[in-house]
Every structure is written in structure tokens, then in C-alpha cells.
Amino acid sequence: MRLKLEKISEGFDEVIIRYRHMNATVQAVSQMVQASGEKILASDDDGSQFILVDTILYFESIDGKNFAYTPNEVYQVNQTLKNLVYTYGKKGFFRSAKAMVLNIYHIANFKSHSFGRIEATLDNGEKVLISRKYALKLRQLLEEGVRDED
């Protein structure tokens, strides 16, 4: 497969995928392009707005309300954590605790803790605990990523 990038001075950005047969690689590239720039409706004190899913560090459920945390802001979202994992699991979101869905792409480093828990430091320096129930899922995700790179 060849890759050709072309810089243009005017007009709209465009991605054209040419293929003879649809395969897993072509499908993955297509899905990635379609999902880039995906937004979610969220609200804060200023009202409702769309925010980029890729900027979200994690979702958390507090007192029956769900919140999206970005590096600088906190927004309320109206989707359940279960639905968020289902919808954005392919974008790196996974259940890290009963009340939290974490974006694996915003984890800076890990540290093992007692009783099988994992402490994750996020890009913004915030530390979150991944419960032992969900730590195995994180390990599986990391192993899959390593296999994909081989």
C-alpha cells in the first residue's frame, strides 16, 4: 500500500482511499478518517456545546450525573457510561472503574498498586486509579496495541 500526501493552498481537506478489495487495513483507515473530529454534545455553565471526543481525558459518574473531563474543563453529558464505552471504545475509551471511563490515549504513565490496582497519571498530571476488576482489561488493551505494532 502506498501513501501519498499532497499539501494544497486553497480548498477543503479531502481524503480519498483507492483500493481494489476492501480489507481490514482499508476499513480501519476509513473508520479512523470518519471518526476524526467526532464531537459529543456536552453542557457547562455557559450552556450546551459540542466538544471533540479526542480531547476528553475521562468520563465520570457522580451522583447519577455523567461528566466529561478535558485538560481544562468539566462538562456534563447525557449518555450513560455503558453507552459511552460502546460508542467510543474504538477511540480508546475503556471502563476503568464502576464510575469511570478512561481514554487510554491520554495516559502518560502507569504505576502498579496493591491489590491489583493501577494508578494512571494523565497528560495533565492528574492521577486516577484503575480498579483491579478493570485492570485486566487495560493490560489486554496494551498487549493488543503491542501486537498491532509488531
UniProtKB/TrEMBL annotation:
- Swiss-Prot/TrEMBL keywords: DNA-binding
Fetch the Gene3D superfamilies from UniProt. LytTr DNA-binding domain
Question: Among its keywords, does the record have DNA-binding?
Answer: yes
Q: Which N-terminal residues, if any, form the signal peptide?
A: none
Give all residue intervals belonging to the HTH LytTR-type domain: 40-144
One short Pfam name that applies is LytTR
* GO MF entry, a single one: DNA binding
Task: Report if keyword Transcription regulation is assigned.
Answer: no
Q: Do you know which InterPro entries this protein is assigned to?
A: LytR-like (IPR046947), LytTR_DNA-bd_dom (IPR007492)
Please report the name of this protein according to its UniProt entry.
Answer: LytTr DNA-binding domain protein
Instruction: Kindly list the organism's lineage.
Output: Bacteria, Bacillati, Bacillota, Bacilli, Lactobacillales
